[in-house]
Write a structure and sequence with these properties.
Rossmann fold
């Protein structure tokens, strides 16, 4: 069982038995997929800072052909890319860059190919993160800064609601459901950001932000902008509501 410390900004979760080089174990070393070869393909990006086991299983349960890998070409060409994340903000960014994860995210978004960031994988989409008095540069795809929650009890751990935006893709049909959170940091605001330096143009696609209140903080619970999607909570740990959110995301692949 993953602890709160493992799933928050304090260190990476164990990666378990999942295999490298673009394949994940089901006990035999085979990829997790159903019986059809025309299934949508999803890569869960494996850069050493993600709680990947439950995410791979949750996606496979939705009938997707899921591969766990850090291979640039596979991650670029898959129908969908999921970027998980646990641990410290700066360490996650360093790990991502070491395997060119930043490049594959930018390249996918330039090509309008969907990306889903989860937990710290959502946070690193922002411009920067502050932790223990230090600032770390993020991917700069969402305008804003990730800071510590202002609450009597941190981390924020357990089930909580979201204030879903009108027209949301992720929350279609599940606007009033509860989702599972484990985090001490979050973005408290979204501001305009210029992504032209990455040659990324979201065009006139709507920017949709979901919010959650905890303690004295009102933070970004989820974000949608063109092919970029992100959630602060863990859909893979959010029972049927999380499964439906993943199905909603898969529908755009």
């Amino acid at each position: 069982m993953t602890t709160a410390a493992q799933c928050d900004n304090h260190g990476a979760c164990a990666r378990g038995i999942w295999m490298r080089r673009g394949r994940q174990a089901d006990g035999t070393g085979h990829r997790l997929k159903g019986g059809k070869d025309n299934m949508k393909t999803v890569v869960v990006f494996d850069y050493g800072f993600g709680n990947v086991r439950s995410m791979v299983r949750a996606l496979a349960d939705q009938g997707l052909d899921v591969t766990l890998t850090s291979n640039y070409r596979q991650a670029l060409e898959a129908d969908g890319l999921v970027v998980p994340g646990v641990g410290a903000y700066g360490a996650c960014m360093e790990g991502l860059r070491k395997v060119s994860g930043d490049r594959v995210i930018y390249d996918r978004l330039r090509a309008e190919r969907p990306v889903l960031g989860v937990c710290v994988g959502e946070q690193i989409m922002f411009e920067e993160g502050e932790e223990h008095g230090e600032e770390a540069e993020g991917l700069g795809l969402i305008g804003g800064t990730v800071t510590k929650l202002d609450a009597d009890v941190v981390p924020h751990m357990g089930w909580d609601t979201v204030e879903a935006p009108e027209g949301s893709i992720l929350f279609a049909g599940i606007e009033h459901e509860r989702f599972y959170y484990v985090h001490s940091y979050a973005a408290m605001a979204v501001r305009p950001v210029d992504t032209s330096e990455y040659s990324i143009d979201f065009g006139d696609s709507a920017e949709r932000v979901a919010w959650c209140d905890y303690g004295r903080s009102r933070f970004v619970a989820a974000y949608e902008h063109g092919p970029l999607f992100a959630t602060q909570f863990h859909p893979e740990k959010s029972a049927e509501a999380g499964a439906q959110l993943l199905r909603n995301w898969a529908a755009v692949l």
